[in-house]
Each structure stands twice: as structure tokens, then as C-alpha cells.
């Protein structure tokens, strides 16, 4: 029973051994010594069957109490190991609240994307729809439908990246060289009057301070009855003044050649005052839509006329923010980009 020297000694030995266990593995090993099949307590319980019922009842109660005290000592030591592990982890993961915090950087749109959005807003305000098209284009839409048949010398002006693939009709595929490739696509699914702009990425084998193999361009198209070159001049001049938010802009339309417009003109501009004053810069190609292109759109050239223009977004961005080298837009230098945050 509980007052028995054997039971008291077992309890004392168990409490001492458990308290001295260096780790959980040692503790669990010692558990078998006091509570396992071959332990002294188990032997005492097995011996109860030989005792008289009254004695068995009394002795059994004492042994069970002793077993409970041993288990209590075991669980107490287990809890100590668990608490120590938690405290160790908390210490390792502690945060010094006196240290300065980590500040999140504030991002912004890329300057070219800012120009993109600004142009969309301006043209949308005067009734132009914003359209989109595929970057992988067919040779037909990119060249042939725009009055540049195969082997036409004008194609050499826009050397580009061809794919080792063809479309369902067997036509070559390439990365589009200009947003003009959307002229015929858009007109085939919209009836006049057609007023649209198409911004997007374009590709040409070209790279220097004012050119990039990948650049952004916006194509403008207006087709209706009696649309003239005067409409082109009025729309584009108004756009530039609103885009740059100034009226001291000189604009000239310089005769040029594009196979998909006739007559055609390069659009140059300069500021009368400021950093770029007195310096003409070409910013767009433009002209009246060629009758052959109108025919490829499924329109009657005798009934409909129109104008188109294509402007480089990087060029406009360079002028707006005073950037000297187009390559700066694609180098991902945060010191440069933070200027536009």
C-alpha cells in the first residue's frame, strides 16, 4: 500500500531519475524502467492475484496511487522539455521592436505606359475607339494588304523577325512591324464611319539611341465620306497641343512616301521655347489611306476616304520628359524610372 517502503522507494527513484533526464529520448527510456512491462509496479500488480480479496483491494489501491504519482512526475518532466523547446524557438524568432521598420517601395507606371494611357484618354475624348490586335501577324495583313506585295522595295524599310510557321492559309507569320497592320483587320469588322486608335508593341531589326528592336506605336485611322488631309492636320495638331499641354509647338508635314497612303507625309515638330527649342524631330508618318488599301478593307475608294498616322510612343515620351536616349526606357535602371514615380 501507499505507506509501503517498496512503493515509496519506487516513487522517489522515479522522481529523481525523471528530473535528471537530459533530454526527451532519455526520459522515454527511463519511463519503461518504471512503467513498462518489466517494471516493479507491474510486478506488484501481477502479484495481487495471489492475495485474499480484502488484501488485494487494499494493496491494489495503493499500487494504483503510486503509479499515478510516477506518471505525474513523468508528465511534469515532459512539459518542462516542451516549454524549453517553445522558449528556444521564441528566442530565435524574437523581433526587436526598437529596430527601424522596412519601408515598402511605391511603384508607378513605366513612363511609356503613362504616355500610352494619356494618348488613349485624349483620342477617346474626341470620339476615337481604342482597338487591339495580335503581335504575331500574317505577312498579308502586315504588308500585302497595305499595298506592299511580296518583293516590294518598301518592305526593306521594315526588316523584322519572321517565324518558322505559317497561318491556316499558308501565309508567313512575323512579329508585326507597325500598328498599321490593324487597319484592314479593324475595317473588315467595322463599317464606316471608322475612328480608331490602336496602341501596341512593334518589332524591327533596329537599335541605336533613337531606335529599339521592340518599341511602342500608336496607329490612328479615320475613314468616312469626304475625310481630307485637312482633317488629319486638325486632329493631329490638336492632339499634340493637348498631349504636351502647351501651344508653342511648331508642326510641319513633310512630303514622304508610304505604300499604304497617298499622299503621304512625315510629321515633324519642335518647341519654340525650352530645352528642345529649335530642334525638329520626326514623330509620325501619316497620309490619306491608299485606294488599294481601302479596296482590301472591302470599301469603295470612290465613296470613302480617310487618313492614317503612326506615332512612336517612345519618341513622344522622350520629348515630353526630356529623355535623350531611347534605350533608357528598356534598361530597368531604377534611378531613371524613379523620376517618373
Strand count, sense and barrel status of the largest sheet are: 7 strands, mixed
Q: How far apart are the termini?
A: 84 Å
Query: Can you tell me the residue ranges where pLDDT is under 50 for at least 5 consecutive residues?
Result: 1-5
Which superfamily, in CATH terms, is the homologous superfamily of the largest domain? Bira Bifunctional Protein, Domain 2
Work out the number of β strands: 10
CATH architecture designation of the largest domain: 2-Layer Sandwich
Q: What percent strand?
A: 15-25%
Helix content: 40-55%
Q: Which structural class do the helices and strands define?
A: alpha+beta
Instruction: Give the overall silhouette.
Output: elongated
Average pLDDT over all residues: 86
**In DSSP terms, counting alpha (H) and pi (I) runs of 4 or more, how many helices?**
11
Overall tally of domains? 2
Q: How large, in whole angstroms, is the Cα Rg?
A: 42 Å
Order of helices and strands: HHHHHEEHEEHEEHEEEHEHH
Task: Strand order, main sheet: write it out.
Answer: 1-5-6-10-9-8-7
User: What fold name stands as the CATH topology of the largest domain?
Assistant: BirA Bifunctional Protein, domain 2
The first-level CATH class of the largest domain is given as: Alpha Beta
Amino acid at each position: 500500500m501507499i505507506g509501503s517502503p517498496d512503493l515509496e522507494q519506487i516513487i522517489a527513484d522515479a522522481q529523481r531519475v525523471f528530473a535528471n533526464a537530459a533530454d526527451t529520448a532519455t526520459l522515454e527510456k527511463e519511463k519503461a524502467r518504471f512503467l513498462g512491462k518489466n517494471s516493479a509496479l507491474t510486478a506488484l500488480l501481477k502479484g495481487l492475484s495471489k492475495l485474499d480479496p480484502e488484501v488485494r483491494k487494499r494493496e491494489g489501491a495503493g499500487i494504483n496511487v503510486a503509479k499515478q504519482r510516477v506518471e505525474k512526475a513523468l508528465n511534469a518532466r515532459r512539459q518542462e522539455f516542451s516549454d524549453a523547446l517553445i522558449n528556444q524557438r521564441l528566442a530565435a524568432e524574437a523581433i526587436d521592436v526598437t529596430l527601424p521598420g522596412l519601408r515598402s517601395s511605391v511603384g508607378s507606371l513605366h513612363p511609356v505606359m503613362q504616355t500610352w494611357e494619356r494618348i488613349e484618354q485624349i483620342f477617346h475624348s474626341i470620339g476615337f475607339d481604342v482597338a487591339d490586335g495580335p503581335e504575331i501577324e500574317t505577312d498579308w495583313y502586315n504588308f500585302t494588304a497595305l499595298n506592299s506585295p511580296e518583293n516590294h522595295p518598301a518592305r526593306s524599310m521594315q526588316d523584322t523577325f519572321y517565324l518558322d510557321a505559317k497561318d491556316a492559309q499558308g501565309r508567313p507569320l512575323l512579329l508585326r512591324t507597325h500598328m498599321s497592320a490593324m487597319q484592314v483587320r479593324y475595317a473588315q469588322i467595322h463599317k464606316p464611319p471608322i475612328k480608331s486608335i490602336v496602341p501596341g508593341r512593334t518589332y524591327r531589326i533596329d537599335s541605336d539611341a533613337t531606335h529599339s528592336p521592340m518599341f511602342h506605336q500608336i496607329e490612328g485611322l479615320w475613314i468616312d465620306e469626304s475625310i481630307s488631309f485637312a482633317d488629319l492636320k486638325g486632329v493631329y495638331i490638336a492632339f499634340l497641343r493637348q498631349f504636351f499641354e502647351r501651344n508653342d509647338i511648331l508642326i510641319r508635314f513633310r512630303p514622304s512616301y508610304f505604300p499604304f497612303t497617298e499622299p503621304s507625309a512625315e510629321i515633324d515638330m519642335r518647341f519654340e521655347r525650352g530645352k528642345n527649342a529649335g530642334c525638329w524631330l520626326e514623330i509620325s508618318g501619316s497620309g490619306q489611306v491608299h485606294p488599294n488599301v481601302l479596296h482590301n478593307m472591302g470599301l469603295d475608294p470612290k465613296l470613302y476616304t480617310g487618313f492614317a498616322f503612326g506615332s512612336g510612343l517612345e519618341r513622344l515620351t522622350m520629348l515630353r520628359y526630356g529623355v535623350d536616349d531611347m534605350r533608357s526606357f528598356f534598361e530597368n535602371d531604377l534611378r531613371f524610372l524613379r523620376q517618373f514615380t
